[in-house]
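ok so for the tutorial part 2 we go from a plain amino acid sequence to predicted structure tokens. step 1 is just haveing the sequence, like this:
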Amino acid sequence: MGDILVAQGDLPEALNAFRRSPTIRQRLVDADPANAGWQHDLAILFLKVGDVVVAQGHLSEALKSFRDSTAIAQRLANTDPANAGWQRHLSVSYEKVGSVLAAQGNLPEALKSFRASLEIRQRLADADPGNAG
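step 2 — the prediction. this is what the tokens look like for a chain of 133 residues:
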């Protein structure tokens, strides 16, 4: 629903939809913390919330949302280092954090975040050189 609202340009309503969803997902994660799928879904929702609030110009709120996603992605990546999907999500999270930090003028921290993203992507590319993605 939130993705459709974003496509229609209704960012405030999209944000409301995305914010309701993490609350529900968080309850599921709390009920079954070992369920990596629910954790990943929650991390994706944090990215979506961050994207919408960036579009609205609320960088501090976006940074918090992206960092929440990064924390979950880091746990998943640490739990299963061979899972390229978890690694890629972590890389995307670092990139989004870096973009917000750069927009806020915090270039040294943005560079750290971009380098962390690049390191993961380089590892993924080296591990599977035939994967164009």
